[in-house]
Each structure stands twice: as structure tokens, then as C-alpha cells.
Automatic annotation (TrEMBL):
<dbReference type="InterPro" id="IPR028978">
    <property type="entry name" value="Chorismate_lyase_/UTRA_dom_sf"/>
</dbReference>
<dbReference type="GO" id="GO:0003700">
    <property type="term" value="F:DNA-binding transcription factor activity"/>
</dbReference>
<feature type="domain" description="HTH gntR-type">
    <location>
        <begin position="22"/>
        <end position="90"/>
    </location>
</feature>
<dbReference type="InterPro" id="IPR050679">
    <property type="entry name" value="Bact_HTH_transcr_reg"/>
</dbReference>
<dbReference type="GO" id="GO:0003677">
    <property type="term" value="F:DNA binding"/>
</dbReference>
<dbReference type="InterPro" id="IPR011663">
    <property type="entry name" value="UTRA"/>
</dbReference>
<protein>
    <submittedName>
        <fullName>GntR family transcriptional regulator</fullName>
    </submittedName>
</protein>
<dbReference type="InterPro" id="IPR000524">
    <property type="entry name" value="Tscrpt_reg_HTH_GntR"/>
</dbReference>
<keyword id="KW-0238">DNA-binding</keyword>
<dbReference type="Pfam" id="PF00392">
    <property type="entry name" value="GntR"/>
</dbReference>
<keyword id="KW-0804">Transcription</keyword>
<dbReference type="InterPro" id="IPR036388">
    <property type="entry name" value="WH-like_DNA-bd_sf"/>
</dbReference>
<dbReference type="Pfam" id="PF07702">
    <property type="entry name" value="UTRA"/>
</dbReference>
<dbReference type="GO" id="GO:0045892">
    <property type="term" value="P:negative regulation of DNA-templated transcription"/>
</dbReference>
<dbReference type="InterPro" id="IPR036390">
    <property type="entry name" value="WH_DNA-bd_sf"/>
</dbReference>
<keyword id="KW-0805">Transcription regulation</keyword>
Amino acid sequence: MAMNKLHTNATLADPEDLASAEPLYYRIAQDLLRSIRNGDYPVGSMLPPEVRLCEHYGASRFTVREALRWLTDHNLIDRRRGAGTTVKNAEPAPSFIYRLSSLSEMLKYPEDTYRENLVSTMVQVDPRLSDYIGSPVGHEWYRIGGLRRSDRSDLPICWSDIYILPEFAPLVAGETTSNEPVFQRIERERGVVIANAQIRIFASSIEGELARLLRVADGSPALTFVRRYLDESGRNFESTVTIHPEKRFEYALELHRDGAGGLQT
């Protein structure tokens, strides 16, 4: 691969060598990561300014910033206004970061992740499950349990238990993998509309068989998300319990103050 020197002894790929089906920002990010791994930009050193990177890659400032954001999201660099970009680590962090642009995105995972179903069965609500999903003890729900995965890592992102009313079970019965949220399928196939969503987030731990499936030590800390999806009549037609091992997933939410003094995404 041909190389062009940018400054000191650091080398970056010739832009013509970055031709690929991948987005340009991602190719730039991967080239910068290669230079970091090779020691061209060791931990503690500074990356070139945005303007220099734009000139070198023949890319817009927006594209370069997207590349730098990818490196930031993977805990490789630290960017500070007026102080430049510092290399923090030589290897990406294993966490999966999901940046939210709307509150509706809190209800689902990115489309480049998928669910690997390992459990599909009818269950009766016990007191513990009743506390999670808000259903009376003894009622029946259809449970889909499985691992959320991404092609970015061999490690599962989380474990998800999805509980839906039995009338919707035929929509997902026998399914082994899917990247479509179950609630979206229910909306599309049965005309159910989400009128209200309730979200609880709390610290928890991962024990026993679940620890083995998530490939963490028994008793490892986790973050649990409980989501309830209510239709226009107030009926809870789906609830999910999702358990995230530490350092595997992160929500990044940015709020802006609107004209009325409130906050919006």
C-alpha cells in the first residue's frame, strides 16, 4: 500500500488506497486506527488537526469528524476544544455505543444488531416477573429469550427476554434470528399502536447460566432495562427485560433546550 507522510514519522494510507464499499468516514477511521496500532501515533500523542486530515484524505470536515467520532466512541482518542485530539488507547474498547437522536430510539436497538433466539415458550407470571412486566401473577405470556449480537464483536451485547401476549405468539414462533423489533412486527401485522412506553433502568448482577451465555464471570455487574409497551387502550401488549454486562453497551443521549425552556433530543 502506498503511503504519504503527514507529519514527523507518522504515515497514513494514500487516499486512493482506501477505495472500498465501506463509507469513507469508516475507511478513514480504520486507517487512523492502523496508524495508532502501528505506533505512528502512540498513546499520549496528538492526531493531526481536522484541516490537515481533510486535506490529506480529500474529505469534507463532516466526514473527518464522523471518523474521529468513531474513534472517540471506541475509546481510542480524546477530543477537547482548543486542545486538539489525543490518542488514549491503541485498541478499541469492546463496548457497543448507541447514539440516540430521538426518544423513540430508546425502544429498540440499532438495525446492525440482531437477536439470536434461544428460548421460545409459554410462561406463567410469578411474583418476580410480575414486578418486572406489571402483569398479574398467574397470567400467561409468550416468552422469547436470546442474545443480542453485532458483527462488530464476538461478545454478545446483552441478554433479552421479550414477553408478548399469547395472541401475538404466532408472529414470532419458530424464529431463530431477527433484527426486527417484535413490537414493530406486532404494529405492522396486527395494527397495534404504541401509545405509551415505560422504561426502568437499574443496576443488577449476572449469575449462573446467564453469566456463561454472556461470557462474563459469575456475579458480574450489569445494567438492566425494563420496557413496557402499552397500546391506545392502556393494555400492556409487550414487555422486555434486557441485561447488559458492564462495558458492553452504552446509550449516548444529547439534549437541547427548546424555545419554551424545555429539553428535547
